[in-house]
Amino acid sequence: MEASRRRLIAGGAAMLAARASSVKAQGGSGFPDRPVRIVVPFAPGGITDILARAAADRLSPLLGQPVVVENRAGAGGNIGSEAVAKAPADGHVLLAVGPAVMGIAKPLHDRLNYDPDADFACLGLFGAQANVMLVSPRALPEPTLAAFLAAARARPGEVAFGSSGNGSLTHLTAELLAADAGLRLVHVPYRGSPPALADLAGGQISMMFDAITTALPLHQGGQARIVGTATAARIPDLPDVPSLVEAGFPSLDAVNWFGLFAPAGVPGPVQARLRAALAEVVSSDGYRTLMRSRSAQPIELAGRSLEEFLAQERRRWSEAVVRSGARAG
Question: Number of helices and strands (H, E) in the chain?
Fold first, then answer.
């Protein structure tokens, strides 16, 4: 599956470039005729919020109307996502989310008041950021991937990993590793990453996954060690750290991606204009420079390649939720 996913991304780049022609020639009927809102269903300051705001600033001149970001956090992203699903389907209210909503929310919850699969149309992806695997120098004889695997195999059901919460991306990425490596680990959920990282540095837990931007300071300061990246290939920020796919764990091509979605009923010409505008933004030098400064990379997909990528992501995270037994009620 992972090799196929990488082929999709490579093939999608060519399709996206072909489609990113004149934005103003796309869509008609006076759209947009008022400001466009992008709802980020998380608190301000996170990577989704930062990239969404950067994209919004660059979309405004292309669309001829202000494009503003509104944070509507709560319930793991479900409050803001539900609001967009139920918004008028005219293209003036959009949603910026990734796998937490589009891959994890539906299998994690017994009941949602919207359907992440059916209630949205994806306009494109505006970046991705790697999650990385950290181990604790205080909990292991040496802070390496091999030492962690050896300890977990020697003491099944005893070695603990932390996460930012039950059913979170950091939790389920560790579950993917456990499945690939045949490990039985103890999950310790926290209320967000900061307390989990503090316990990792203190040796109360042995391992966790987190975003590269929050992991790097601990790695550089020696409080924790990054021993692998949850990507298909090595990343520019950590050229000497192997990807976990390279290390033999094929399910660990599991980046946190960011997509722009519209309510499913938005007319085709309006969707086309938004897709073309977003493609122009993501391909611009200024936006790519900003992504690099935030340890993010582009994912260029369109059309069927994008649909297949999203379907693969839904399968990946649904299987991880089922395997973990995580439930959010």
Answer: 12, 11
- Cα–Cα dist 226/207, whole Å: 10
Rg (C-alpha) for the chain, rounded Å, is: 20
Residues 267, 274 contacting (CB under 8 angstroms): no
Please, are residues 87 and 262 in contact by the beta-carbon 8 Å criterion?
Answer: no
Question: By the 8 A CB rule, do 100 and 268 touch?
Answer: no
CB 140 within 8 A of CB 158: no
Closest CA to 102 of 210, 256, 291: 256
What angle (nearest 5°) sits at the alpha carbon of residue 309, between those of residues 275 and 297? 70
Interval 106-165: pLDDT, tens: 999 999 999 999 999 999 999 999 999 999 999 998 999 999 999 999 999 999 999 999
Question: Taking the model in full, what pTM does it have?
Answer: 0.88
Instruction: Please enumerate in sequence order all residues whose Cβ is within 8 A of that of 56, keeping only pairs 6 or more positions apart, or say none.
Output: 38, 67, 68, 69
Closest CA to 193 of 221, 222, 220, 224: 224
Give burial (CB, 10 Å; 0-12/13-18/19+) of 236: exposed
Q: Residue 219 and residue 24: Cα distance in Å, rounded?
A: 46
In angstroms, the CA 108 to CA 251 distance is 19
Q: Return the beta strands (E) in the chain as ranges.
A: 36-40, 67-71, 93-97, 120-129, 131-135, 160-163, 186-189, 207-211, 225-229, 256-263, 296-297
What's the order of all strands across the beta sheet hosting 67-71?
67-71, 36-40, 93-97, 256-263, 120-129, 296-297
Angle formed by the axes of helices 47-63 and 268-282, nearest 10°: 110
How many Å separate Cα 30 from the centre of its chain? 33
